[in-house]
Amino acid sequence: MSFDGLNYRLRQRRRLINGGADPITRYLIRISVDRYPGDPERSNQLYQENPLTWEEIDLHAWYGENRTEPMTWTAHHDRDAFKEVWLMFSEPDSGRHFPLYPGQACWIDYEYTVSATHWGNWFQRAVRLPTNRLSVRLDFPAALEPSVWGLETSMTAEGQPFRTPITHQVEQGRHMYSWSTDHPPLHARYRLEWDFRGRSDDERTPPSKVMAGLGIAQEGDEILREVARPFDLPAEAEDARRVIAELNSAAQRVAQAHVFGKGMGIAAPQIGISRAAAIVRTPNGDTITLFNPRIVETGGGEDEQYEGCLSFFDLRGRVPRPLTIHVEHTDIDGNTRIAVFERGVARLVAHEVDHLHATLYLDHMKPGVEPISVEQYRGTGTAWAY
């Protein structure tokens, strides 16, 4: 899929294998759009007033590895935001037929266009036939400063981040994102979403939705108000290592979507794991890993600074915190240790320790003080001032 700033052009390429007993003479494709996922009333109104048309789609299809044979097509369903089309194994002009017989394989290609007014910041592929390999490539202008992430949904699990990373490279002023998976299970859905940081705020995806798409639990999720279960270390060392690996993976995804000038942290409940583990990445690039942490002493006075939280990232709130904290925690070998943190790092650590004890920064804000929207906040990308 490529985007020029106004229109998306989508090219689908499939290798079909006829494993049945009858010749295949047509293949059903689906074009479904949703400009405002999560807001069906707004989307429905858009398509009722301005429906997706065949003229806009400009559908073309070919048969053969090198697009040797144009394919004709006929509409199966024609709705305001949804089209289904039969690609026919026949030429549009001559009427010549080239069915796919049992045991044979072939390539088909089809392309169509959808304007940015009709297409939301997402692309989804559902696996409806046994598939050996699924590959997706996104191509965006560099000026839009794109950020891309992926979400997988199956018959047995809700949306989870992709199991493997999306690769990224820059070529001639374009940002290219590629991802693939082998032998995806039937009925799995693979969804790529993106945000354009180079666009004005009213065109951008809400930050909380970006974080939800990256696999971060959002305010209202019950797990954020549950006290996380401690690890029995070293007996549960392997479990603890797996949770930290998941946290580091989530931190990598999040860091691609936002600049964290103050550092950042993630606690296990924020990625759906109710265990007492968290990581903190400091502004100078160090990573702090904490198991079973609790604050046992504070000192150095107190200050009040704005904080954000990945679990409600549309807001920023002024939170009073001690300038020095002493944190008791357990290392992977089961030893109890005390670590001392100061100023900005103390604030980061205290925020994550709170998550493990079912507390959000909103709980610390002074009475009568309300958070502000991220649009009003002016400290993004900069360190806290002391």
Detailed description of the structure:
This protein has 386 residues and is mainly beta. The protein has five helices and 21 strands. The protein has helices at 40-49, 54-57, 207-213, 237-257, 343-356, and strands at residues 2-3, 7-17, 26-32, 60-63, 69-70, 72-78, 82-88, 105-115, 122-126, 133-141, 146-153, 160-161, 167-171, 174-182, 189-196, 264-267, 277-281, 287-307, 315-330, 336-342, 372-373. The strands form five sheets. Strands 16, 17, 18, 19, 20 and 21 form a six-stranded antiparallel beta sheet that branches. Strands 1-2-8-4-5 form a five-stranded antiparallel beta sheet, with no helix packed on it. The protein has a four-stranded antiparallel beta sheet with strand order 9-15-11-12. Strand 4 and strand 5 form a beta hairpin. The longest helix is centred in the middle third of the chain and has 21 residues, at 237-257. It is elongated. The chain starts with a strand and ends in a 13-residue tail after the last strand.
Tell me how many strands there are. Answer: 21
Count of alpha/pi helices: 5
How would the global form be characterised?
elongated
Strand content: 35-45%
Q: Summarize model confidence as the mean pLDDT.
A: 90
Question: What gap, in angstroms, lies between the N and C termini?
Answer: 47 Å
The proportion of residues forming helix, as a percent range, comes to: 10-25%
Ranges where pLDDT stays below 50 over 5 or more residues in a row are none
For the report, how would you describe the main beta sheet? 6 strands, antiparallel
Computed CA radius of gyration, to the nearest angstrom: 25 Å
Return the structural class: mainly beta
SSE run:
EEEHHEEEEEEEEEEEEHHEEEEEHE
